[in-house]
From TrEMBL:
ATP binds at residues 257-259, 273-276, 344-347. Belongs to the class-II aminoacyl-tRNA synthetase family. Type-1 seryl-tRNA synthetase subfamily. Keywords: Aminoacyl-tRNA synthetase, ATP-binding, Coiled coil, Cytoplasm, Ligase, Nucleotide-binding, Protein biosynthesis. GO terms for biological process: selenocysteine biosynthetic process; seryl-tRNA aminoacylation. Transmembrane segments: none annotated. Consists of two distinct domains, a catalytic core and a N-terminal extension that is involved in tRNA binding. It catalyses: tRNA(Sec) + L-serine + ATP = L-seryl-tRNA(Sec) + AMP + diphosphate + H(+); tRNA(Ser) + L-serine + ATP = L-seryl-tRNA(Ser) + AMP + diphosphate + H(+). This is Serine--tRNA ligase. Residues 67-101 form a coiled coil. Its EC number is 6.1.1.11. Homodimer. The tRNA molecule binds across the dimer. One of its GO terms (molecular function) is serine-tRNA ligase activity. It comes from Phytoactinopolyspora alkaliphila. GO terms for cellular component: cytoplasm.
Length: 418
RNA sequence: GGAGGCGUCGCCUAGUCCGGUUUAUGGCGCCCGCCUGCUAAGCGGGUUGAGGUUCACCCCUCUCGCGGGUUCAAAUCCCGCCGCCUCCGCCA
């Protein structure tokens, strides 16, 4: 949701943003009209209501015919107030519906265009020179680390078991991510993975990407695709104290995605799956600090990528490829040797005040309260195992273990096929 | 799942039976000022949030867990829901 006052004062900003994303500009004028109509009907209701209240005060002391006359007038007025209130509620509701339509206003500097129009900010690390490349599934099966056949038997396609060193590697990676976050001052959190509709809607995931989300109809709950969702809801309807800096949380959770519309894409292995684990950074900060905080989140992501010794690049995602909540997004993509392409491992979004406005998360300032900014970023996921296995593979099908992960696999520096 | 209790402006709390001088009481905390060698105490004032209107001040409306209803009028009466607590039952 956007700040109507900003739109009222500077509608061109939203128009420009909608153009950059390739979305509708008409909604801006519709919004302005709905806002005007809401304010008009609200004023009318308030005027009548004030009259009703002052008339109501004259009734108790009155008596006889005078009282009867007052009561008759009050009764008429009550009907008018009721009608005016209904009209004002309708106008408010129309405005709320419209206000939920536009995506967040993109920040200056975000590349214009669609999925292919990203800007590469930098490439870090050496792409390994491999003679014979095995993909992560072949390597994982060799090590006794990944079992997708039995995953499919038990739960269907895009499910898997992590077994033996595979399970250890995942736990190790996520622990390393958690430890990295805690050292950086984040509060570690283990979150609910089922959330109420308001929270899911508040994070902006029920718009264009609603198909991606599992819903438990009997209980009216949604399975989260990331702990960003419960962490954004954590402070809903609260007024925060950000005077001592951002509130930073590191969420550990299972994540569920339907992967609707990705049939036939990344069907092999565990690149694109219905369920995985993730450690997610989430930050509540002042709006003016959000851009700097975004850089910091990116910095911690890159620290993790360096710790597991992966070659990667950082891209500034184009406006048309941003989620509805994001005003800017940086992805880190690791090299995927088996496909000679880049694979997204992290994604950090600056949602400015968009989510906070929907979820009603504010901070206290000298003059009152205002919406905070929220940001999120990935510190580790199951998918990272794909890049780790492939980039650290050796000709015999064994896999070297990055130093930072060795404590989690019994101190071994190499995982051998079983 | 069953029974009972509770939900008031940061925290505690009065008001709810019996609707209207309630602009929701008082205390704690916090903020401003006065007083004072300093601090504490004392004294005075302020202190929910949102919206409308306005250059601004003022003013107005909503807000007593949430949503309906009754009424000229609802914190107060009625209905539904949510949350918390206690007990019972069931179950990892």
């Amino acid at each position: 949701m956007l700040d109507l006052r900003v739109i009222r004062e500077d509608p061109e900003r939203l128009r420009a943003s909608q153009r950059a994303r390739g979305e509708s500009e008409e909604v801006v004028d519709e919004l302005l009209a709905a806002d005007r109509s809401r304010r008009a009907s609200l004023s009318e209701f308030e005027r009548l209501r004030a009259e009703q209240k002052s008339l109501g005060k004259e009734i108790p002391p009155a008596a006889g015919e005078e009282k009867q006359a007052l009561l008759a007038r009050a009764k008429e007025l009550a009907a008018a107030v009721k009608a005016a209130e209904a009209a004002a509620d309708d106008a408010q509701q129309r405005l709320d519906q419209l206000a939920a339509v536009p995506s967040n206003i993109v920040l200056d500097g975000v590349p214009v265009g669609g999925e292919e129009d990203y800007t590469v900010l930098r490439e870090v690390g050496e792409i390994p020179a491999l003679e014979k490349v095995r993909d992560h599934l072949e390597l994982g099966e060799g090590l006794g680390a990944i079992d997708t056949e039995r995953g499919a038997k038990v739960s269907g396609s895009r499910f898997y078991f992590l077994t033996g060193v595979g399970a250890q590697l995942e736990l190790g990676l996520l622990n390393l991510a958690m430890n990295t976050a805690v050292e950086a001052g984040f509060t570690p959190m283990i979150t609910p993975t089922l959330v109420r509709p308001e929270v899911m809607a508040g994070t902006g995931f029920l718009g264009a990407h609603a198909d991606e989300i599992y819903r438990l109809e009997r209980d009216d709950l949604y399975l989260v695709g990331t702990s960003e969702v419960p962490l954004a809801g954590y402070h809903a309807d609260e007024i925060l104290d950000l005077s001592r800096g951002p509130l930073r949380y590191a969420g550990w959770s299972a994540c569920y995605r339907r992967e609707a519309g990705s049939h036939g894409k990344d069907t092999r292995g565990i690149i694109r799956v219905h369920q995985f684990h993730k450690v997610e950074m989430f930050s509540y900060c002042r709006e003016e600090d959000a851009a700097d905080e975004h850089e910091r989140l990116l910095g911690w992501e890159e620290r993790m990528l360096a710790a597991v010794e992966l070659p990667y690049r950082v891209i500034d995602v184009a406006a048309g490829d941003l989620g509805s909540s994001a005003a800017r997004k940086f992805d880190c993509e690791a090299w995927l040797p088996s496909q000679s392409r880049w694979l997204e491992l992290t994604s950090t979004s600056n949602c400015t005040t968009f989510q906070a406005r929907r979820l009603n998360v504010r901070e206290r300032t000298e003059t009152g309260t205002r919406q905070v900014a929220t940001l999120n970023g990935t510190l580790g996921t199951t998918r990272w195992l794909v890049a780790i296995l492939e980039n650290h593979q050796r000709p015999d099908g064994s896999v070297a273990v990055p130093q930072a992960l060795r404590p989690y696999v019994g101190g071994r520096d190499v995982l051998e096929p079983v």
